[in-house]
Design a protein that fits this description.
alpha+beta; three-stranded antiparallel sheet; two-stranded antiparallel ribbon; globular
Amino acid sequence: MPDYTVKFPLEFSNESNGFKTIDEEKLKELVFFNLKNIILTNPGERIFNPIFGVGIKRYLFEQENARLDEIEYRIRNQIRLFAGFVNVKDLQLNMENNALQIILKFEIKKPRISDVLILDIEI
């Protein structure tokens, strides 16, 4: 089974590259990690890539409807740009009592993986 990348946070290992890796069995963990990073990172926060990230925090004080439409657009666009291997099947945003819940149903074609990422963000 091929290794896709090293596991974050980095953990030392006696394996061939010196760090624990993520293989096909744990690929879903890698996809969750990537999607969370895309959603929670502010644009300009990632070095050498100023357009990476949704930037949820900048939507704190905007009107709810405009905020949800823009957040949905940003999430879909950022996934298309930085995780093109992920096919978004459904995206739901629920705002309640200063909390945003993101429900993201996704699919990866090869290897075949379908799952749901649920993020609860207090704003």
